[in-house]
Structure formats: structure tokens, C-alpha cells
Amino acid sequence: MRPFVRSLFAAAAFTLAALPSAHAELPPGLAGGNLKIVVGYAAGGAADTVARLYAEQLKDAGFGSVLVDNKPGASARLAWDVVKKSKPDGLTLYLAPSPLLTILPLTYKTPGYDAEKDLTPVALLVEIPTAVVTGASQPYSSMKQYVEWAKKNPKKATLGLATIGSSGHLGAFALAKAQGFELTPVAYRGASPMLIDVVGGELSMGWDAAASMLPLYKGGKIKFLGLSGDKRLAALPDVPTAREQGFAEFVPATSWYAVYAPAGTPPATLAAMERSFLAAAAKPELARSLEAAGLVAHSEGRAELAQRAQRERANWAPIVKAAGIVVDE
To answer: Pick from 123, 137, 234, 262: most CB atoms within 10 A?
Structure first.
């Protein structure tokens, strides 16, 4: 082989050796293993979308495969239980909705799980701005107009909810109390039947994840009255936040999804999984996909996630007490 060719091959070998390996970050117990992300809701919703977008970004991280396993039931607690009983090897994770960590422990008389001991934090993946909406034919088109209407029509002011004691329920309760009007919560077995009544005008207002209601909005069936959180959504640039409209009480109604592992998962494994998910979260294409779906790319590590869950639980506690919400199942 001529010297120039040998030098070229040597340079190429050095360059390849210098590149970080997709498997380098994963310890032997994870590299090549089949990762499963368990979701507590059926396919097609916001949680499923988040899990599948992350699974796509993680496929080159060094795992043998990355699968999404939908286990709907019991307000996402069935999936929690599945992961709780799984081997603590980092290969079975739970995509946890924030209410299970922040609100349900306060509202359920017997939640059936321990929010602080059953699972351990890995990483927060995304924030889920929520929204209050109304039917397209209703006479109000903003939160201010709704508050004015509700004060004049106290017996008609209803809020449709898929879950009693959700962040939307508590945020709307705090808003109604601050503004001095009565708001009657109406519970449904899922968001779909609730939204049917919103569209039909049987409910004056409904609440859910903004992303889940985009198709109805684009189809002209509903109007967005206001969003939780501090920023407008890229998918809804013309819809103002509740804070912009002067209703800060509804701002904390934003939800989030985070990854949790079974208790007892080794620290080194947790650290490796944290790195993998935060690396995926940093990819611009993931942020674009999330924004297009009406979600907000936002990641935090294990320590920050644990602190956030504790902080939000403490913030919701007095509101739950004032609302007198107790769910007995």
C-alpha cells in the first residue's frame, strides 16, 4: 500500500475512533437492551405522542429497541403499578403525568400508590399547556368575556372535566373564587364525551390538554378561551394565555410528563437513563415535532424533577383543601 493511502486510512481510523459511540454512555446492563416506555393512556393522545416522539429519538442511543407500551386504566395508575412491579434495571420506565405526583395524592382518599416511594425520577420531558374552551356558537370568546357571562348566568356556568381534582379543575376553581362567581364542575369518563357536550353547547366550558383539542379547533367546532402557562403556543399563536388576560390563577394548570423508573434502580443506571433522555430532549427536531403537536419542549434532570413535584404538591395543597375535593374510590 502506498504511503499516501496508508496515511489516509490511518487518519480515517483516528477520526472514527475520536467520534463518541452511541453505546459509550450506556452501562453493560442497558447497552443493547430493549427499552420499554409504559404509557397510562390509549394510543393517540398527548402522552402517547410524547412517548413515541422520544422513542424515535432514542432509537440510536444504544438500546436494542425502544418500544411504547400503552396500559390505559384507573387514571393512569394501572401503568404506574406495572412499572412499580418491574425489574429495576432501567429498561422499563413510566411516562408519568404530573397529576399522579402532584394532585392525586392530595385528592384521593386511598390513591393506591405512594407518589414518593414507588418510583424514582429520571427526567422531565415536556410541558403540556392546558386550555379552557367553549363551543363555537357560544357568545363569549375570551376568559374575560366568560367571567362576565358567568356572573350573569351563575346556574349555567359549568366546567367539563375528564378528571375531578385535575390541575384544570383546581386552576378554574381558584380563578372562579378570585373573580367571585360560581363554577360547577361536571365529571366525564374521558375527554371525548366531555368535548361532545362542549361542542353541543351543553357545557359552558371544558378543560383539557390544548394539544388534544387542536383538531376540533381547526375544524371550527370550539373556541379557545385561554391557555395555562406563561407563553403562547407555536401551534396557537393567536390564543392568549390566562396571564395575558389578567387571570393568573389559571397559570399553574399546565401539566407535564416525566420519566420515572422503579424504586431500587441503581444510581449509575438512573444517571445513564437521565443522560439519554436529556440528550434526546436537546435535539432541535424533537422540539419542532412537539411544538407542532401543541406541546412545549422542556427538560429537567432527576434532582430538578423531584424538587418540582414536591413544590407543586405543596402549592396545590391549600387549593385542594379550600375546594374540599375528596375522591373516594
So the answer is: 123
Q: What are the tens digits of pLDDT across the range 251-303?
A: 888 889 999 999 999 999 999 999 999 999 999 999 999 988 888 899 999 99
Task: Check residue 212 and give its pLDDT.
Answer: 84
- The residue among 40, 104, 27 whose CA lies nearest residue 71 is 40
Evaluate whether 320 touches 173 at the Cβ level (below 8 Å).
Answer: no
38-71 residue pLDDT tens: 999 888 888 899 999 999 999 889 999 999 999 9
- Cα(278)–Cα(258) distance, integer angstroms: 11
For 238, the grid coordinates are: 393567536
User: Please, are residues 133 and 225 in contact by the beta-carbon 8 Å criterion?
Assistant: yes
Beta-carbon count within 10 A of 72 CB: 17
Q: How many CB atoms lie within 10 A of CB 202?
A: 13
Sheet containing 255-262: order of strands: 65-70, 34-39, 92-97, 255-262, 119-128, 296-300
User: 194-212, pLDDT tens digit by residue?
Assistant: 999 999 999 999 999 898 8
**H runs (alpha helix) in the chain:** 3-18, 46-58, 77-84, 98-102, 104-107, 143-152, 167-179, 191-200, 210-218, 267-281, 284-292, 302-323
